[in-house]
Amino acid sequence: MTHTRTPISTAAAWHLSDVKERGRIDGDDEDAGIAMMADTAAAEIERHCELALLAQTITVTVDEWCNRIPLPVGPFWAAGASEHPVEVEAVAEDGSTSNVTGFYVLPGRYPILKLTETVAAHGLRITYPAGYGEEVGSIPADLQLAISDHAARLYDMRGADDAPQGLSIAAARIAARHRRVAI
Predict the structure, then answer these.
(1) Cis link prior to 70 (omega < 30° from 0)?
(2) Which of 30, 56, 59, 163 suits a disulfide with 157, CB 3.0-4.6 Å?
(3) What is the pLDDT confidence band of residue 166, given thresholds at 50, 70 and 90?
């Protein structure tokens, strides 16, 4: 299974004032660098938790499946499904595609695509909307704190070669509540 992310929302997943407050940063001289670190922190948390913080289109390609396909990135963005509908395509060996109509999505933090018909194909390409919404205010408050805390840590540790790697302690604890349990 492989997947790609295409942003729908162009908003930032953080407020600069929150990041600067968390990092006890005064002045505006380093705002561009702080913004880059906040973007990095948000991306790390998204990847760590298999989340879409802000609205994105996720395109998944699978070459083995059953009638129940766990989708890799959540939460399913139900409010965006009217403008960005779920699409399922059967991919033949020669690369040609055909639309699959017999399916539905069980929404939620860990969305699942359920096929209601048998699909004979080399692969499936599934496109669906994911994320909490289009603005930073739609992201749960604890994840906003995790982004700010990790960005502040990145700011504090800039240039340090021997600093511990990974998420900040607070961001890691918060992210643990949002991660899917793997078996």
Answers:
(1) no
(2) 163
(3) confident
What CA–CA distance (Å, rounded) separates 82 from 78?
A: 8
Tens-digit pLDDT profile for residues 100-127:
999 999 999 999 999 999 998 999 999 9
What is the residue whose two structure tokens read 């948000």?
A: 42
Least confident of 77-81, 112-116, 121-125, 179-183: 179-183
Q: Three-state secondary structure along 152-170?
A: HHHHHCCCCCCCCCCCCHH
Name the nearest CA neighbour of 1 among 96, 72, 81, 56.
72
Alpha-helix runs per DSSP H in 60-168: 141-156
Phi-psi region of 50 (alpha: psi -120 to 50; beta: other; left: phi over 0): left
Q: Is 90 exceeded by the pLDDT of residue 72?
A: yes
**Quick one: pLDDT at residue 181?**
75
**In the chain, helix, strand, coil percent, each to 5?**
30, 25, 45
Number of Cβ atoms within 10 Å of the Cβ of 60: 20
Structure token digits, residue 166 = 């990974």
Would you tell me how many other CB atoms lie within 10 Å of the CB of residue 168? Answer: 23
Kindly report the average pLDDT of the chain as a whole number: 92
The pLDDT of residue 162: 73
